[in-house]
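Quick one: structure tokens for this chain, please?
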Amino acid sequence: MQSLTYAIQTTKAYYCLECGKCSAVCPLARFDGDLLPRRLVEEAITAGVDATLAQRLLWACLTCKRCTEICPSDVDFIGFIRELRVLARERGSYAHCTHGDAVFGWMRVMANPDLEQDRLAWVGDDLEVSSSSEVLYFVGCLPYYEAFFGVPEPVGLVSSGGKENKGDAPRFTEIARSTVKLLNQVGIAPKLLADERCCGHDLLWAGDVEGFKKLAQLNAELIRESGVKLVVTSCPECYRTLAVDYPRYGFNLGIPVMHITQLLAQKLEAGEWTPPQLRGRVTYHDPCRLGRLMGVYEEPRALIRAAGLELVEMEHNRSKALCCGTSCWIECGYVSRQIQEQRLKEAQETGAELLITACHKCQIHFACFLSLSPQKFPKICNIVSILGGDSA
């Protein structure tokens, strides 16, 4: 069983100085004065487990890592949150999934080793894939998201040849298709796994460690048996989970894991790939998992600039970038909307036609806000949809 003492000791929460720097940068605290990171730490140290687990911040926290990065005492606050959520789950308290538990439900269904899936129907004859490839493209839940959220209208930029590049915001299987096209452009026909499962990111960060482990075991076995020497993802959460959390929980893949932007940036620098040439003024949104949690900031920007696009930075960028407003499909409400509006206003102030990100979940959350807002903000697109779109 998990304990509050364990959570405090392993994350250095007892070093907290109550200086308030974490609360000053927390996007939640900006709009709700009850959601203060230091207050949760104080409750844990002084008031005990029941008072701690009753705090709203336990489930509202975005785990965006702004607080951890600024903490002068090196308190791992997002690790603290994750440990507390495990403890809460063991005591019968659960996260409130904003989609009626449907998303968590399909993740747990995928943990069934006998499950039969039809997850590769998006692979057309125009994509080169190979069962003998040494490079695996880990697709993640993109096919499931398309079935659940549907397919909205495409948005795009104009290429230097005058054709529209139809990036999608967010068209999920097109993100997967564009990723394979980009891999093909650099000479890689990737392997795809018909029995691949969700990486388990959301279950892990929502405190369901056992559910996460079931998914991790199935995926780790499939990847090891595949014989590949490199795993590439288009999802920042898959990237973080496979590269960091799988080894942490005993499921080390034994091979490198890369985000697609890292691989393309390497090929670009080596002169082994030339991106499509596009026109337009754009800005870039750093996903929390790709940026603060994995340190990937410059590679996406190098790709955007190499494509001939004018990149204009938002006020908060790179390690200071604002979150998209929600995480792990939990606690998406009024405060989330305020955060999303603030971020989209920053994008609007740049004069950009398009807000580019490298995370389909950021797209989902921003697109959800836009569907309810009468205001005009830049459209949103995934970087792989722009670089690997059909019209590029």
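The beta strands are 135-138, 157-159, 164-165, 230-233, 257-259, 278-279, 281-285, 310-311, 354-357, 379-382.
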